[in-house]
Amino acid sequence: MKPQDMPSFKNQPILSHAAVQRGAVVALPPSSRALPQPEDFPDLKWPDPAAEVVAIPLGVAKVSAGFPSPAADYEDKRLDINGYLVRNAVSTFFFPVQGDSMQGAEIFDGDILVVDKSVEPQHGHIVVAFVDGERLVKRLYKRGGCVALIAENPAYPPIHVTGEMEMVVWGVVVGKFKRLL
């Protein structure tokens, strides 16, 4: 996708929760409809800051995906999943993925995304965004005054954000969980 092929978005800010929290922008939707809130989505999950920390054994030696290393050190450490993936518990949420538009980014149907609302969205970040009230996960394209949400599957066209659209970047994907069995 080339910048000249995308609509101009120079006078329309991208709102992010982090910018609103800092007071850098005031979040006023272009329509009279209020923006969706976390409690509007009963399927939304988030970490409990008061929950007991469960540390899982973590091998210090890396697991070889090629040839085995006979000199591996087998000393163990413990890994707290929240400590590893959750930087800011009050602004971190878990979203289940539905669909295949992000499979090129290794995000598949059934995965659980770790989304942090306090991270400032940048060009190239994978984000959870609301576009005209619909919750989406896409890669953020923000260059030359143009903004788009890009799927990581060629079967899905980019969403070119125009001034007539209501678009809010809700948070940045910082990790994911995947079940193998």
Summarize the entry for a quick read:
By secondary structure, this protein is mainly β. The chain is built from two helices and ten strands, in the order βαββαβββββββ.
Descriptive notes:
Mean pLDDT is 75; it is low at 6-15 and 23-33. Strands 1, 4, 5, 6, 7, 8, 9 and 10 form an eight-stranded mixed β-sheet that branches. With 181 residues, the chain is mainly β. The chain contains two helices and ten strands.
Structural class designation: mainly beta
Question: Unreliable stretches, pLDDT < 50, 5 or more residues?
Answer: 6-15, 23-33
Element pattern in H and E: EHEEHEEEEEEE
Principal-axis shape equals globular
- What share of the residues lie within helices? under 10%
Number of helices: 2
Query: How many DSSP E strands?
Result: 10
List keywords for this structure.
2 helices, two-stranded antiparallel ribbon, 181 residues, mainly beta
Which secondary structure elements does this structure contain, and how are they paired or packed?
Blueprint lengths: L14 E2 H6 L32 E5 L16 E5 H5 L6 E5 L15 E5 L9 E6 L2 E10 L2 E5 L8 E2 L6 E11 L4
Parallel strand pairs: 1-10
Antiparallel strand pairs: 2-3, 4-5, 5-10, 6-7, 6-10, 7-8, 8-9
